[in-house]
Amino acid sequence: MASVILGIETSCDETGVALYHTKQGLLGHALYSQVALHAQYGGVVPELAARDHIRKLIPLIKTLFHDCQINTVDGVAYTAGPGLIGALLVGTSVGRSLAWGWQVPAIGVHHMEGHLLAAMLETPAPPFPFFVFVVSCGHTQLVHVAAVGQYTVLGESVDDAAGEAFDKTAKLLGLGYPGGPAVARLAKQGNPDTFHFPRPMTRKPGLNFSFSGLKTAVLTTWKKAPVHDEQTRADIARAFEDAVIDTLAIKCRRALQETGLKNLVIAGGVGANQSLRQHLSALGQKMNVDVYYPRPIFCTDNGAMIAYAGALRLAAGEYEPLAIEARARWSMNDLPLIQKKS
Ligand code: KG4
Ligand code: ZN
Prior knowledge:
The chain folds into two domains: 4-118 and 298-334, ATPase, nucleotide binding domain (Nucleotidyltransferase, domain 5), CATH 3.30.420; 125-293, Nucleotidyltransferase, domain 5 (2-Layer Sandwich). Helices cover 43% and strands 19% of the residues. It has eleven helices and ten strands. The radius of gyration is 20 Å and the shape is globular. Bound molecules: 5'-O-[(R)-(carboxyoxy)(hydroxy)phosphoryl]adenosine and zinc ion.
């Protein structure tokens, strides 16, 4: 029987909602980004994020129901973790309470499972098994997806995520927030040969990343530079971007070689970076690997991926007790595998 699931995402600084129909697909989705609210602080302020989710979530749900001409749902899925605890508590409390009021099941979704499955909302969807490269502000992870619920993290950042490194570098160079697009824009004017930054952890075997050292390299180079003009800034931005992208591409190639997988999905906000896309597409062609780029709105935090993952979990008979549970930390290894119905 077909069902409609409401999805709610509030783990960080985006309030996302969506309605997913198990037969018709995505009925609609809406997003409110808090970027402008946090811009003056140069990063997400957790307390402000939680307060703004409270202000925006219910009006966003009301508008979504109105736009989709939907009055009832068969389940409410919400991000239960990992993420900022105050922000998570807004989505979990509202989601769990709506489900109780409507007398439908509530489904607590793992945020990363949402990201890993988001590409399945697109046509064509990647076939299992596939490989997801999540490159965002919160995560840099290489994940092998064998089936729904069967995830193996092959590599991840031991310190800053790639997006975080872009944001911190932007701050050091006096650019705006979020820093990724600003650094990328400036890098276009930079000379690739003026400065050279290391490609961290690429000489050692393994698939982990470390980006915190690059930020120190940027700071030292900027301090030592004889002239502090726009060209120096652009040259540093270029050297930084080249270092991050080279590092990501080297590890991605290594992971594809080690696993032999032929389907690669790029997720996360840094996936919007043109130079990264060019590198990974070229890599895909060279290695005979199909590269999938979900539309940008499904790469960053959104309600659609939560509605979709929730619909799969509900179909497998999973739902929450009445208690409201949010987890700031939550290992993907704790997720149960969804058995395929034969
Ligand atoms: O996926 P996302 O919303 O972050 C998390 O949910 O964790 O992605 C936002 C991140 C920010 O760090 C932003 O600076 C970065 O993606 N970003 C970029 C670009 N566009 C966004 N980084 C590099 N180049 C870009 N063009
Ligand atoms: Zn995310």
